[in-house]
Amino acid sequence: MLTLHSSALTDVGRVRRENEDRFLHDESAALFGVADGVGGLPGGGEAAQLAVDELSAALRAVPAGTEADLPAVIRAINDSIVRLGQQISPQTGIGTTLTAGSVRGGILRIGHVGDSRAYLSRGGVLKRITEDHSVENEIRRRRALGEMVTYRESQRNALTRCLGQPTPLEVDVFTETLAAGDRVVFCTDGVTRLVTDREMGEIVAKATSPKEAAETLVQLAVRRGGPDNATAVALFAAPAGK
To answer: Going by C-beta distance under 8 Å and a sequence separation of 6 or more, which residues neighbour residue 241?
Structure first.
């Protein structure tokens, strides 16, 4: 058994007027993650809030000893966001990323859509768990298959998947068996575009607490200009009772 210690922090940054990031930080239920309302569309904050609220409710309702069908849960949340978008912004809809999940029996299960990220630090080595659903990554994948495709530089970070899209949603699911000493970080692109993976690895490995890890990552992104909302949730696994 493990004891989980966690912390979360969000900052509006230095450019945006509103914070459309949301986080899931429920240590008692072992639910963690982030959602980033899609910029440029109205209702991003509402979409992100609905995503974390409905995911929390769905995962809390899962009986002990059973596993949630994360793709089904997140597709149901997607339908709710589509319906809300029809009310808030019928012309364009609303959208959000979602990278979040739960820890049960020492097993971390993450559902992922968009370009927010989850990382695992083990023995001082950082591994990126998720892959961004972006135009740049999609083009890279298609080129690896031999397709001759190009894209505009201005589109490289555009999302290829998000909650709120009317088409059938593909959800990535990742499973990690946690051990004492493992450290997990969820963060939005307001952090990852300003903090490199190498820097993140060093920060997370050196942090004396999840609070220090989350605060250091968010504050560094803001100091470097804070062009977007920045959010981080840090989770440290310790031996039972520690």
So the answer is: 3
pLDDT tens profile 182-235: 999 999 999 999 999 999 999 999 999 999 999 999 999 999 999 999 999 999
DSSP tag of 242: -
Cα separation, 115 vs 97, whole angstroms: 7
Candidates 135, 229, 136, 125; CA nearest to 183 is 125
- Residues of 169-187 as b/e, b for ≥16 C-beta within 10 angstroms? bebbebebebeeebbbbbb
Assess contact for 50 and 76: CB atoms under 8 A.
Answer: no
Identify the three-state secondary structure at position 239.
Answer: strand
Global pTM reads 0.93
Check: CB of residue 75 under 8 Å from CB of residue 66: no
